[in-house]
Amino acid sequence: MILVVALAGLVGLQWIAHKIYPPIPLPATNSVAAATNVLPAATAAGTNAPAAPVIPNLGPTPPPAPTILSAAEETLALENDLLKVQVTSRGGGIQFVDLKKYPARIPLNREQKSQPNEAASLNKFSFLPAFTYANAPTLTEDGQYRLRQSGATIVAEKSLTNGLRLVRQFSLASNYIVHVSERIENAAKQPVTVPVQELVIGTAAPMDPHEKADTTGAHWFNGDKLSHVDAMWFANRTLGCIPGTPRTEFVDGFTNVVWASVHNRFFTMIAVPEKPADRMISRHFNLPAPTPSQLAADGKLNPKPEAYQTALLYAETPLAPGAAIERSYSVYAGPKEFFGLSSLGRKLELVMDFSGFTGFFAQALLLALNLIHKVIPSYGWAIVVLTVLIKLTFWPLTGISTRSMKKMQALQPELQALKERYKDNQQKFAQKQLELFKQHGVNPASGCLPMLVQFPVFIGFFFMLRTAIELRGETFLWVRDLSQPDTVFTIPGLGFLPFFGIQGVGLPINLFPLLMCATSLWMSSLTPVSPQMDPVQQKMMKFMPVFFVIFLYDYSSGLTLYWTVQNLLSVLQTKLTKMNEAKDTVTVIPAPKRR
Asked: What is the mean pLDDT of residues 367-384?
């Protein structure tokens, strides 16, 4: 009954979410190809879709080098209160997108918050601008476009020697949306074949030089299923650790690419074509690595920074004189903010990777966290309150488990006697053991039930806090950023220590993981151990908190804050349960004497 009520509450949160975060219509665009006020409805994969023209096998295409032009670069920018979009004449695409409300890096201390900081920027560390062509010399030639601004629209134009004329338009809407349109027109007097078009939509690169490769990648969505490609896929390791032949490119789709994206930990660029694209391709590149001296000075730097350039692929197309190919796109360039993305339609919120059973919990927990934050304007205290509410939800279940384990301990002498009596007949022993449990109202499985029920909640917290933009830069007590470790100070000269030390920096003292470990050990010392558990397993469970500290020491302080509060509440519950031990005393019937 308790579990049913808890799940019903989580389902109810989904209904509340649609009331609080209703769909937000987007303004109309003045692009060449007219767009609707919202993202176009998705076309179901494979539903009345025409057969895709054959796209030649690209093969092991080498990484495209940055375009080198003799002509001077020209840039124009579009701005609103959220974005600055800079368009370059070199490639006629988006050079970068600055997110004005988000700093590129979180200041090291509170005193630096008043100092100016550059804005977080998308596509800045890239080989090619977004919405330009890659691996198509006949479509790029010298790569130089003419730029002009017409009202709130930037136009990039280029005429090719074969008679093709390329025109792109860029304009801003609300909610981090950029409208892009392109037109490939045959201005010649004879037919011209447009080659395979690999239209780059952006490059996923770390926002910070300390970010690891597992925070970046690419997605594509076919209207039904989301696919994700990241460092692990390109590394091609068996079971995640056995080296294999690295992959350099990922190609997928068949006239059903509803949208594709690139992302880092907190931000994303999502290209939504008005009509599904033929295919998508993502390529892996190595970015310039830090020098040995830089690594020696800061061991937290990513020694092998990587990037993933993603593009939409369109098949080779013949164009008659005067004919044209026209396409339009809505591009989301902004934070991975779940409810803002879900309000735009097309299931853009899937880039958060909140999928499956644990994803359901991640969504519900994020919604609950934001609702609490509306009342308590501190995400740190919101995490504390949410932890208390979760603990209260599972409080009766945990109490039943604790009492059941106490009864199991009280029955241990009788169980030992039964084991001795029926040591040669395991079937009879199992039968008598069940009868003894039934006689005293003991359920052996109830000791593990709270852990099994709460495990999805913990995993949901883990995935939610890993990418929750809400926690980025949020302070709490001594914590400077709830999305990062809560380092209070660093002991120099101890960077050589395994697991915890940082070469060239020292030993960071992260307080919440240490508190988490201490409270976990305290809780385990108070919790009755199942007498049926093997002694080796008992020791492993006792020292399990130490292993979690190693795993989570450099993780989000928001997660270790949750775990620490959870442990303190568990200690409180155990103490209260012990105060009522008299009510749970078990009278054990002595084993009958042997005749």
From this structure: 90
